């Protein structure tokens, strides 16, 4: 348990708040004590989300779903107020460790314990499914251990089986390594999905390892969909049950009721947990149950709110209390923004701060590393414009507990310059997070430096799977996952014999490898692999040979360089089938160089078109006012990155967090931006979700088609 933050309430309804159990982007989980001494876990939602009508509807649904579940092995809802200004949900508090903590501390469970765990969790899932719901996130961290059995928790992402309105279409719900193949592929899920996840949990409990390994999230997802589970070490009899749960097709898995009956046959009357785990439970229970009373703290009166660009939510602008105001007055104030264009590796600081209240507040400094003068300057400048707009908007609000300041460094897209830029930003202890690094080579040069400094690097441009790291956050789908919507498009149009083009680059390898395997494995499509080197002299002959095979569609997965020559050569063959290109082609240089040969190409991109996307309407208006032009690609994503960081700082409740404070919080935050929803895999910082948009080239321009392959 963590101590309360300055902004946490002392009481929620009839519960005295004792401390924090956890925190995330949507709110906090607090430990509360009733007047009679009963401990509860209170999930308190932030006001800015509570004011969102759709979010409040989902929260009401969560409470209703949780109350429908009747089983001793699921944590019950004991109280809730879904209509409060800050809605909350209280559940019974289980002081024991999670299954993940227990296995981490005491090692794998003995066979008798795994059989008992399977029986009781299957009974819990049977109750969940009987209530017409699916849990969707059965994992070791959501299983708490108690002397009388486990407790399944966190129905926050559960959905009624008939709920189609409240499910986000661009998010893969669940935890990689424990989710089902249908979840990994974004397909509809039912009760069988929970059974697959339970099989993963039982394998983990018996061996201490995940059945589909670890590593980059896209690699785990790929193995979940296509590879057999690794069940070495699982006892033979138990292994047969786990293998049945891990059947790839949902129809082949046992039901929760059948699984409960099978596990009950192998149960024993012995204590269900080993002594090492019961000792851990007792130790934690004693620590929690002996908590002292705490003094009441002052809670400020409700504050006015101001609209936030890009959504119908509001941001809390409560003025600081007297004690906090004195702290703020003692802090160094931010100055005026510096003007002018940066030269190579010349950084500039933007210290603009809110002045509406006349009160000085602490400045939270961010770093921006971007290619502002090199080959990637178009995207780099878009990043800079989006970041500066977000900083200016934040600082224009009165009553913020902190202002934002910015240090910008131009790395010219060069690895050596990027390394020097990273050294400068990492050495500045005031910088708590960095947005940027231009491309794959620049990111690769900077990661060791940011890692050593414990400084988060949040990239909206790079998706190289080699850069998975403890401080790297990939704010876009990786190269290996960006083509999944294309597979859906091909399936919708029943296209086969897909010519998949690789240009021998590392980017091309990452894009085409997983995509090709997905096409072969799902639906049994035929893939025609084609290698057309970007600098090859025989592009024309290779393309003619490919077209002669009459492919159902041509998918180009290489870098931008060489793309125009390929498009012209393909046009010369008279090919008229679908032509699709990956993220690298979403660059104005492609239609400019390819000319008429680019028209009709479908391009997928992780960047939205703010001028066409309804969610970015207010952002586009503000951007036009500031820059007198429409926002370019990746401006909205950079804007979202700043707001994501600011949201996490507000959640911490401390206006002066360190860079080390932010690293774990950023990875566990879900943020709805103006471009898309941002969520990350906590273990490796990979982007969780689809986050891909379709464009069609017409008359030399990219026309935005949206995220749904059915609209293409």
UniProtKB/TrEMBL annotation:
ATP binds at residue 43. Pfam families: Peripla_BP_6 (PF13458), Pkinase (PF00069). Coiled coil: none annotated. The keyword ATP-binding applies. Residues 298-319 are annotated as: Disordered. The keyword Flavoprotein does not apply. One of its GO terms (molecular function) is kinase activity. Keywords: ATP-binding, Kinase, Nucleotide-binding, Signal, Transferase. Residues 15-273 form the Protein kinase domain. InterPro entries: Kinase-like_dom_sf, Leu-bd, Peripla_BP_I, Prot_kinase_dom, Protein_kinase_ATP_BS. Signal peptide: none annotated. Belongs to the leucine-binding protein family. This is Bifunctional serine/threonine-protein kinase/ABC transporter substrate-binding protein. It comes from Streptomyces cinereospinus. The lineage of its organism: Bacteria, Bacillati, Actinomycetota, Actinomycetes, Kitasatosporales.
């Amino acid at each position: 348990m963590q101590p309360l933050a300055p902004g946490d309430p002392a009481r929620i309804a009839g519960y005295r708040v004792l401390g924090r159990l956890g925190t995330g982007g949507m709110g906090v989980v607090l430990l509360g004590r009733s007047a009679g001494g009963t401990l509860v876990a209170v999930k308190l939602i932030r006001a800015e989300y509570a004011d969102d009508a759709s979010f409040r509807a989902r929260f009401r649904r969560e409470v209703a779903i949780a109350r429908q579940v009747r089983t001793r092995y699921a944590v019950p809802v004991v109280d809730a107020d879904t209509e409060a200004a800050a809605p909350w949900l209280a559940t019974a508090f289980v002081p024991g460790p999670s299954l993940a903590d227990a296995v981490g501390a005491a090692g794998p469970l003995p066979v008798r314990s795994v059989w008992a765990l399977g029986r009781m969790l299957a009974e819990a899932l049977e109750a969940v499914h009987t209530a017409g719901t699916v849990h969707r996130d059965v994992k070791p961290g959501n299983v708490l251990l108690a002397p009388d059995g486990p407790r399944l928790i966190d129905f926050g992402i559960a959905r009624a089986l008939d709920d189609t309105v409240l499910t986000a279409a661009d998010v893969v719900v669940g935890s990689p390594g424990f989710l089902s193949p249908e979840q990994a592929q974004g397909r509809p899920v039912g009760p069988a999905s929970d059974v697959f996840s339970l099989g993963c949990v039982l394998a983990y409990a018996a061996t201490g390892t995940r059945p589909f390994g670890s590593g980059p999230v896209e690699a785990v997802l790929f193995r979940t969909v296509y590879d057999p589970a690794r069940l070495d070490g699982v006892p033979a009899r138990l292994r047969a049950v786990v293998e049945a749960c891990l059947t790839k097709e949902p129809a082949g898995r046992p039901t929760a009721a059948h699984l409960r009956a099978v596990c009950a046959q192998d149960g024993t009357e012995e204590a269900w947990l080993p002594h090492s785990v019961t000792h851990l439970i007792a130790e934690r229970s004693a620590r929690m149950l002996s908590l002292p009373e705490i003094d009441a703290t002052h809670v400020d009166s409700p504050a006015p709110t101001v609209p936030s660009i890009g959504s119908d939510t509001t941001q809390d602008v409560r003025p600081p209390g007297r004690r906090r105001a004195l702290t703020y007055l003692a802090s160094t104030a931010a100055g005026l923004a510096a003007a002018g264009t940066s030269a190579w590796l010349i950084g500039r600081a933007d210290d603009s701060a809110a002045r509406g209240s006349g009160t000085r507040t602490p400045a939270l400094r961010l770093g921006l590393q971007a290619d502002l003068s090199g080959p990637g300057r178009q995207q780099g400048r878009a990043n800079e414009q989006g970041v500066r707009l977000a900083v200016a908007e934040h600082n224009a609000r009165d009553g913020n507990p902190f202002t934002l300041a910015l240090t910008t460094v131009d790395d010219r897209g060069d690895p050596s310059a990027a390394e020097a830029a990273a050294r400068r930003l990492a050495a500045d202890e005031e910088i708590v997070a960095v947005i940027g690094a231009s491309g794959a080579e620049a990111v690769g040069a900077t990661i060791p430096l940011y890692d050593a400094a414990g400084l988060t690097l949040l990239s909206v441009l790079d998706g190289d799977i080699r850069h998975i790291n403890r401080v790297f956050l990939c704010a876009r789908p990786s190269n290996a996952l960006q083509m999944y919507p294309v597979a859906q498009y091909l399936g919708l149009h029943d296209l086969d014999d897909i010519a998949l083009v690789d240009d021998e680059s590392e980017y091309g390898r990452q894009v085409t490898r997983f995509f090709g395997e997905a096409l072969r494995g799902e639906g049994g499509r035929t893939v025609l692999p084609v290698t057309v080197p970007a600098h090859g002299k025989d592009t024309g002959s290779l393309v003619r040979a490919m077209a002669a095979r009459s492919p159902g569609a041509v998918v180009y997965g290489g870098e931008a360089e060489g793309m125009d020559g390929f498009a012209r050569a393909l046009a010369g063959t008279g090919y008229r089938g679908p032509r699709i290109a990956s993220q690298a082609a979403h660059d104005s240089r492609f239609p400019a160089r390819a000319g008429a040969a680019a028209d009709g190409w479908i391009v997928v991109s992780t960047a939205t078109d703010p001028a066409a996307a309804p969610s970015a309407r207010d952002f586009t208006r503000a951007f036009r006012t500031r820059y007198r032009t429409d926002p370019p690609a990746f401006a909205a994503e950079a804007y979202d990155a700043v707001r994501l960081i600011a949201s996490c700082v507000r959640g911490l409740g401390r206006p002066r967090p360190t860079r080390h404070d932010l690293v774990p919080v950023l990875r566990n935050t879900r943020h709805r931006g103006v471009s898309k929803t941002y969520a990350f895999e906590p273990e490796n910082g990979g982007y969780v979700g689809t986050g891909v948009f379709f464009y069609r080239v017409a008359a030399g321009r990219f026309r935005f088609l949206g995220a749904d392959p059915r609209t293409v």
